[in-house]
Amino acid sequence: MLYLSYKTYDEQGVDAPGGTKDSNVSSVSAPVGDSAETKRAWEAVKEDPVDVFWRSKDGKISRQRDTKFCKHGDKGMCDYCMPLEPYDAGYHKEHAIKHLSFHAHLRKLQPSQGSTVGASSSTANLPPLQPESYQVKVPCPTASHPPFPKGICTSCQPAAITLQPQPFRMVDHVEFASKQVVDRFIDGWRKAGVQRYGFLIGRYEPYTEVPMGIKAVVEAIHEPMQQGEVDGLTVALPWEDEKRISELGSWCYHDTDMQKAGRGNVQVIGQIFTDLTPRPDDRSKLVYKRHAQSFFMSGLEATFAAKMQAEHPTSTKSSRTGQYGSRFVTVIVTGTEEGSIDMQSFQVSEQAVAMVQADMVVPSREPQTVIVRKETEGRYIPEVFYRSKNQYGIEVKESAKPTFPVDFLLVNITHGFPLRPSPLFRFSDPFPIENRLGIENQSSEVLISRLSQLGASSVAPSPLDNSFSSRQAREKLARWFSDWHLLAYWSQVGFLGPEDIKQIARIATSPNLEEPSILDPLLEREGWQTLMAIVSESGPSKPSGPGPARPIDNDGFEEIPPELLDEMGMDVDQTSGGGSRPRSRLDTSAGGPPGGSATKICPHCTFENSASAVDCDVCGLPLV
After folding, report:
1. What is the Cα–Cα distance from 128 to 595, expressed in whole angstroms?
2. What's the pLDDT at 606?
3. Are 623 and 616 in contact (CB under 8 A)?
4. 186, 316, 551, 560: most buried by Cβ count inside 10 Å?
């Protein structure tokens, strides 16, 4: 019996075969000792709570006892009522589910522990996924030639690519927490008439409508610096503010119960942009652009989505590199066939991301196609094929050069709104949205004015004042805090420190804003007290209690003070008995005009009308 040990060329200090010493060439044997831990990158991965949640479940699809075919008792089980696997093809076809969920796909690739197949397989504990890569391996694993582009062989060059629909999707559903989230975003287009772009802020949660499904819950839309146009837009990328926004999301409320339920932290989960064009013949309706006869997602949008997905990979223990795919979704706001507004949700396939990373494809002038680049001295392009049906209805394999349909790169995702909305941000008085110059403006003056109107400087902690009016004032202030755009502005204005903003983030996203002591940790902080001193000096706070009521006239409205009427150039009409009414000094209908002329002078345009006229004959406004 022989006992052997293995060493790499680097450990021996000897050049690799071919005369090239390469530190990246690893041993073919199993590593021993500490080196084994460093090579198992997937073991140190921290997965999202939704992944941890589904890994703890068996994912079986339960079925009720079939009264027609089941011949056993209530406690028995047979082929007609036994639970189905989450990847069962018949179940997906019956319920019109086009793609497998990510974890159902994993269960299909890697049988559950304890099964016959899993027990007999020597690779059952190895990650089943390997990220797609269409780049030339540099240096070559065989180290038998100079690195590319000076040399290339079958071991380092990528294999031919056959484009095919992706059988699974990383995200199964996009759920907007409330309609107000989308309405506020579309308002930017309504007010300015130019296209808008934003990042989706939210979290990933389990989606029970699909076996082992995952949904992206959108709580807010953050708009970066951009230049909108009527038919497009320009966005400042890379997004320099992403680190700050991600940090703000990590400060939001998140307890152990939410983590056990698979609800992750607030983070950037996707992008959204508008593609809205009014019809020339009817400006109240939109042009229907995206459909089966044209395109759903243009080649430019698909390549851009691929770049964004590559920048936001998903950490998973099921990949040998510790990362696989992306849950970054793309939502397009566009017109429907009826001319109304609707949304379409997509991701691009792993093949699309790999082709963009390898610099193989570029957008075409035709939105429904993508161009395959030509091979150059420093760029190797493998053969690319796709399957389609010819004029005889027979499926054939065709070359994707020079162009191929962009539909081969898309993955459809459903979207919608919850039946019982429970948004994370429950603001009552919305704060202006960021980076909307000329539409909405964020400023420290607006912030201080809102705090002054809310009477924030007079809000006392619950131990000092727990009266009903004080609890109402604290709840009103806490509800005003519950606004993502306000939360994102706090870290820009510089009034408060990071610890103060952490407290505001937890208050804004707390599930119980009515809790009397919810503001106490913030009200006791020195930074908040300093800000309240600035608010008190800037302007008087809004009184917490109701003031004295004004007299009511005959029509049920509050009377206007005489001194205010005098400033407006109005007199008080006392001819109607009981209660005064304002009357213009140009209006001669009450006591007759000077000199006995039977006319009424319009207080708006000063036109002389007949005494019996009710509305002005020129401007049409009321004469009273």
Report:
1. 100
2. 79
3. yes
4. 316
Element (H, E) at 213: strand 213-222
Q: Nearest Cα to 584, choosing from 623, 535, 611? A: 623
Residue in this structure with the two tokens 């690519």, named with its chain if needed: 161
Can you tell me the distance from the alpha carbon of 319 to that of 220, in angstroms, rounded to the nearest whole number? 31
Name the packing angle between helices 242-251 and 498-508 (round to 10°): 60
pLDDT digit string, tens, across residues 96-151: 999 999 999 999 998 764 444 444 455 667 899 999 999 999 999 988 899 998 89
Nearest to 345 by CA among 105, 163, 171: 171
The per-residue pLDDT for range 1-45, each reduced to its tens digit, is 444 455 554 555 544 444 444 434 333 334 444 444 446 888 889
The pLDDT assigned to 562 comes to 65
For residue 116, with 0-12 CB atoms within 10 Å meaning exposed, 13-18 middle and 19 or more buried, which class applies?
exposed
pLDDT tens-digit map of 41-68: 888 899 999 999 999 998 999 988 888 8
Dihedral in degrees, nearest 10, Cα atoms 43, 47, 51, 53: 90
Please state whether beta strands 267-275 and 329-335 pair in parallel, antiparallel, or not at all (unpaired). Answer: parallel
Per the CB < 8 A criterion, the answer to whether 509 and 425 are in contact is yes
Are the beta carbons of 286 and 189 closer than 8 angstroms?
A: no
CA 349, distance to chain mean position in Å, is 19
**Would the CA dihedral through 85, 91, 95, 97 be positive or negative?**
positive
- Element of type H or E holding 54: helix 49-55
Buried b or exposed e, range 158-194, using 16+ CB within 10 angstroms: beebebeebebbbbbbbbbbbeebbebbbebbeeeeb
Is the pTM here over 0.85, yes or no? no
